């Protein structure tokens, strides 16, 4: 019997999403079928509009949460009825995957950014039998049902609120993971976070969880800075301040860490100038902006680009859920929910900044 899903299909980079009935292929040996309860809308989903020749038509979405409806013959990580959070795809066999850093999987780009299987095939077709790419970040969860490899599914307890936890699969994991895993920030250290969106505020929450002594948030919007203070920032600085770096460093030698979530060249350069010798700067934004630096700006410093917080979702997402349920990681304060059929409004609100983390709910 053919399995179908109602999906928000992106057919043209300049057009709204199109709601369509899509047919899904039979499951492969390590694949599972997930009934989605919710899915976050992430900035990277907007980036896909600039990849039209490569991806479209496609089902996007990569912060899904739901229950397992069916499993392939070789699936051994989850079972039918399990509650799962969906995260990025990884091969599970390369050196990086085996060493606990699957976000640096040797096949990360083809597995996550093409919305296709490694062999170029897809497992979804429209009403006319035409192919629709449906492996965006291994899941394509802007749909009521999604086919996912078991490596992308993280089992959570049955009492977890699946309307909230989808963003842990990417945006929240990226912010908090960069602080807690890539930086390994220690109690008493200092950090500045550029951009108080979902990723940046997740980083603030992670820094508070780690026991940072000085947590500085930078943004252009005072309302977001006010929220950053409520969530654990010790200081905030308007991004338009003419003495931005001096305000961040308090005219001192610089902080221990800086995280840029904006992808703006001038902001990334300010992040580099905000840390002192021995400090580290980490960049996470999906951006084509470049950097122009004098070598002396890097004196004694390190800089790196971090994918998915350098976290292993199988370990890190349950950890975040545990901290959230204990009241120590209130990421749900960033969420605004929308019915699935309001996906275009959720995208617009995400783009304008009216919503920090839109989450679409399925009926």
UniProtKB/TrEMBL annotation:
Recorded hits in SUPFAM superfamilies, A to Z, give: GroES-like (SSF50129), NAD(P)-binding Rossmann-fold domains (SSF51735)
Q: Which InterPro entries match?
A: ADH-like_C (IPR013149), ADH-like_N (IPR013154), ADH_Zn_CS (IPR002328), ER (IPR020843), GroES-like_sf (IPR011032), NAD(P)-bd_dom_sf (IPR036291)
State the family named in the UniProt similarity comment for this chain.
Answer: Belongs to the zinc-containing alcohol dehydrogenase family.
Q: Does the keyword Metal-binding apply?
A: yes
Keywords tagged on the record: Metal-binding, NAD, Oxidoreductase, Zinc
- Pfam families, per this entry? ADH_N, ADH_zinc_N
Would you tell me the protein name for this molecule? NAD(P)-dependent alcohol dehydrogenase
Q: List residues of the Enoyl reductase (ER) domain.
A: 11-360
Tell me the organism. Answer: Microbacterium sediminicola
Give the required cofactors. Zn(2+)
Organism lineage string: Bacteria, Bacillati, Actinomycetota, Actinomycetes, Micrococcales
């Amino acid at each position: 019997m053919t399995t179908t899903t109602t999906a928000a299909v992106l057919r043209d980079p300049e057009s709204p999403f199109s709601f369509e009935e899509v047919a899904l292929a039979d499951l492969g040996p390590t694949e599972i079928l997930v009934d989605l309860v919710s899915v976050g809308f992430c900035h990277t989903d907007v980036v896909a509009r600039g990849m039209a020749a490569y991806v479209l038509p496609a089902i996007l979405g990569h912060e899904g949460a739901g229950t397992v409806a069916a499993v392939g013959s070789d699936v051994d990580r989850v079972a039918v009825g399990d509650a799962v959070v969906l995260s990025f795809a990884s091969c599970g066999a390369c050196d990086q995957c085996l060493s606990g850093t699957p976000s640096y999987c040797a096949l990360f780009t083809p597995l996550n950014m093409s919305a296709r299987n490694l062999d170029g095939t897809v497992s979804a077709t429209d009403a006319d039998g035409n192919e629709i790419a449906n492996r965006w970040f291994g899941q394509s969860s802007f749909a009521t049902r999604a086919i996912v490899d078991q490596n992308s599914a993280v089992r959570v307890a049955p009492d977890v609120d699946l309307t909230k936890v989808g963003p842990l699969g990417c945006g929240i994991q990226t912010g908090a993971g960069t602080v807690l895993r890539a930086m390994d920030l220690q109690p008493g250290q200092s950090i500045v976070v550029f951009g108080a969106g979902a990723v940046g505020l997740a980083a603030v929450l992670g820094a508070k969880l780690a026991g940072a002594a000085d947590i500085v948030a930078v943004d252009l919007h005072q309302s977001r800075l006010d929220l950053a203070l409520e969530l654990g920032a010790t200081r905030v600085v308007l991004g338009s301040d003419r003495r931005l770096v001096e305000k961040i460093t308090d005219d001192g030698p610089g902080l221990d860490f800086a995280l840029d979530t904006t992808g703006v060249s001038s902001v990334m350069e300010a992040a580099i100038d905000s840390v002192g010798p021995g400090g580290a700067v980490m960049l996470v934004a999906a951006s084509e902006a470049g950097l122009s630096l004098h070598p002396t700006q890097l004196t004694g410093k390190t800089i790196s680009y971090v994918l998915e917080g350098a976290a292993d979702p199988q370990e890190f997402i349950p950890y975040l859920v545990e901290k959230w349920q204990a009241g120590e990681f209130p990421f749900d304060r960033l969420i605004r929910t929308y019915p699935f059929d309001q996906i275009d409004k959720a995208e617009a609100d995400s783009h304008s900044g009216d919503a920090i983390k839109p989450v679409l709910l399925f009926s």
